[in-house]
Every structure is written in structure tokens, then in C-alpha cells.
Amino acid sequence: MATRIRLQRHGRxxxxxxxxxxxxxxxxxxxxxxxxxxxxxxxxxxATVDLNFDRALYWVECGAQPTDTVRNILSxxxxxxxxxxxxxxxxxxxxxxxxxxxxxxxxxxxxxxxxAHRQTRRRQTEGARRxxxxxxxxxxxxxxxx
Length: 146
Fold this sequence. Notes:
Helices cover about 40% and strands about 25% of the residues. The protein has 5 helices and 5 strands. It has helices at about 55-60, 70-75, 80-90, 105, 110-125; strands spanning about 5-10, 15-25, 35-40, 50, 65. A hairpin with a 2-residue loop joins strand 1 and strand 2.
């Protein structure tokens, strides 16, 4: 059974919050799921994530494929980093003592640095013209006047 870690929508129109669930690939978005890992509320500033770290790590290591948004959430929470380090230990790249995640991840300082970096990048790109779909427009080459 191919499984995915994905978001399940709840809430009223225009005010959605999501459950992070393990579901079969063939199941509908808000349909049957195997296990609930946590919640994601994008309406708060900053977005609130409540996640069962151990179960998320278990499912990622079992081969469950996260969707793009869930992959970003798991990366912010540190699940993907721990998975990466554990894979390095299995391959023999380093030992378990060096595979411990840094203390900045545990205290949240690394996450704050990452959020500050994202905010400065947003400010830098605010002035850039964007197409209606959000991609940057390329300047159109002008032909020389004759």
C-alpha cells in the first residue's frame, strides 16, 4: 500500500485549518486515513504546527511520501534532518555521536534564523514584478529600431 503524508482540510470557507495525516494514495483528500500525526493552522501569525515528532519520523523512515507543503512543515520541525542523519549512520558516513541534531534545532534558534532569512528574502523580492501566477516575469527583449 503506497502511503502519503498529506493535509486534510477542515474549517469553514476562507478559514481553513488542516490535519496532517497518513493516507493511502488512492483515498480522497478529506477521506479515509490511517493515522493522524498533528495539525497545521495557517491562520495564526506565525502558522501553528502541532506534530507528533516520533510518529512522523517513523512514517518517513517507512517510506511514506510527504506532499510538498507537508515536506516543508516536516523540514521546519526537524523531522527531515533527523531522517537524513539516521540514513548517514546506516550508510556508515559517521557515527551516532556526531549524528545528534544541533542544540539550535532543539531550542528553536535555528528556526528563528531561518524565518528571519525568509522575511529578508521576501522584502528583497517584493519590488520585483510578478506575473498573475506568482512567477517572476522575464524582461521582454526589445528589437532595435530601424
